[in-house]
Specification:
This protein has 487 residues and is α+β, with helices and mostly antiparallel strands. The protein has 13 helices and 24 strands.
């Protein structure tokens, strides 16, 4: 459990003169970054040092541990060197937390800025790290980053070095770091325990889906069927004797042509589904409507009742897809990274969608992916030839209803746990912001904390952070690395 703490403000404050900072403890200083840092520009002569990158979630990390999908350079000669406790800033993503104090020796893109503390005896590197990555300081970085549009905002050395920073006394910086490290370890441990629970629930859900869709149990009785036969498919094994096993292309159409769209619909509005509007549990956000004429070229066509699945990694493995029986418009368009499957009269759409959620479908599809690293896609041939365990239509309906009820309970529990994790992260961000800007005084509490061994930063990482997920609105290592190397 997290430690219960009662944080109080400092006894006296003064106006800092900085909009995002407001009042600071009376004994703190406000300094320009140039009085704390100096620029470092030392280049690698061999390019063989550890290659580092900057993550919005994790700061400076080895690139080998990041979800970076762009091609690597042929040579890293001329890349900038950085040492432990140097500040590294991706100048194009500083405004999105693309910076951090490095715990590593290595090389970074020549487009990055590298800065060294002038005096480590008075300025604590970990305090500086938390300060510059804190939510309040992001306002300063956004104001100082200039560009035509958000994805090309860039901060210069001079702009950063002119930024104001709150600076408590050296011993107080150490106390703040001690307190934040202590709280951070507890929050991460609690989050990891919750993430392990989510993983167990996901495995349980997959087991239920597998049992029902492969006929291991009769969902009407909760017991095995009375008679089975060999399916002829290794992963499927035996199936109920009265079931069929048919290749998907025999019971569905793949990626139908939009030439079938009636003329009268071509001037109407249709749902637009980009990849980020489709979830991993069958949900989709169909609120965005556009004119069909605006979507006709360059997007994937589907209609109400179709099933869509992502074909690009890692969205395919993560289960992005949906049954579009409740599509609010007759037709729609979406990302070109979707495969569209249209069921025939032999299979209901909801049952077909459930088959695409089988772990075997995802695993075998991932094995068949083709294309360049990081941009691999599931070929349509794999989907076309995938064997489908096929009961009668009434039985399909019963199985879908059973799975809807069973998985809804599990998914509601998972959603509640994920919300707990999100609240913990919000609490952590707010706590860092309040402590690092002097809104609360942690000196007395820090002095009373027990000694604890340091934990390896990579082993304490939250699972979702370590994966570098590409959720909507989240900046990934891949985004940062690409734009830095373009600069």
């Amino acid at each position: 459990m997290l430690m219960e703490i009662n944080l109080k403000p400092y006894p006296a404050y003064k106006d800092s003169g900085v909009p995002w900072l407001g009042k600071v403890p009376a004994h703190w200083e406000t300094k320009r970054a140039k009085n704390i840092f100096r620029c470092i520009d030392v280049r690698s002569e061999t390019g063989e040092e550890e290659l580092l990158t900057v993550s919005s979630e994790r700061g400076v990390i080895p690139r080998r541990s990041a979800n970076v999908t762009m091609f690597k350079a042929e040579s890293y000669i001329g890349y900038k060197l950085c040492w432990p406790d140097d500040l590294v800033i991706n100048s194009l993503w500083a405004w999105a937390r693309g910076l951090g104090v490095s715990p590593y020796y290595g090389i970074v893109s020549s487009a990055y800025g590298v800065y060294r503390l002038r005096n480590k005896r008075t300025d604590n590197p970990r305090f500086i790290h938390e300060l510059l990555r804190s939510a309040p300081f992001q306002w300063e970085l956004q104001v100082r980053s200039k560009g035509i549009w958000v994805s090309r905002l860039q901060i210069t050395d001079d702009a950063f070095l002119d930024a104001p920073l709150p600076v408590p006394p050296s011993n107080e910086q150490k106390a703040i770091v001690r307190f934040l490290n202590y709280m951070d370890r507890r929050i991460r441990r609690y989050s990891r325990a919750k993430q392990r629970l989510i993983k167990l629930l996901e495995e349980y859900k997959q087991a239920i889906i597998h049992q029902a869709l492969t006929g291991q149990i009769d969902v009407r009785t909760g017991k095995p069927y009375t008679a089975y036969k060999d399916s002829g498919v290794e992963w499927l094994g035996r199936v109920p004797e009265h079931w069929e096993v048919r290749r998907l292309k025999r019971i569905a159409r793949l990626n139908p042509s939009k030439s079938e769209v009636p003329i009268e619909l071509r001037n109407d509005q249709a749902v637009f589904l980009p990849m980020e509007c489709v979830g991993s549990n069958g949900q989709f956000d169909a609120s965005e409507l556009r004119l069909v004429s605006d979507l006709w070229n360059g997007f994937t066509y589907f209609r109400r009742g179709d099933v869509i699945i992502a074909k690009i990694t890692p969205c395919f493995e993560n289960g992005k897809g949906a049954c579009l029986e409740n599509l609010p418009t007759a037709i729609g368009f979406g990302s070109t990274e979707f495969h569209v499957i249209r069921p025939s009269k032999a299979i209901i759409a909801a049952y077909l969608y459930r088959v695409t959620t089988l772990s075997e479908f995802r695993r075998l599809g991932a094995d068949e992916m083709t294309g360049a690293a990081g941009q691999q896609r599931v070929p349509v041939e794999f989907i076309a030839n995938f064997p489908i365990p096929l009961p009668s239509l009434p039985e399909q309906t019963v199985i879908v209803a059973y799975l809807d009820a069973k998985t809804a309970q599990i998914e509601n529990t998972i959603s509640a746990i994920r919300r707990e994790i999100e609240l913990l992260r919000e609490y952590r961000e707010r706590l860092i912001a309040d402590v690092i800007t002097g809104k609360v005084d942690v000196r007395e509490i820090a002095a009373q904390l027990p000694e604890e061994p340091e934990e390896d930063i990579e082993t304490t990482m939250d699972e979702e952070e370590a994966k570098g997920e590409t959720d909507q609105g989240k900046i990934t290592e891949s985004d940062m690395e690409c734009t830095a190397d373009e600069a």
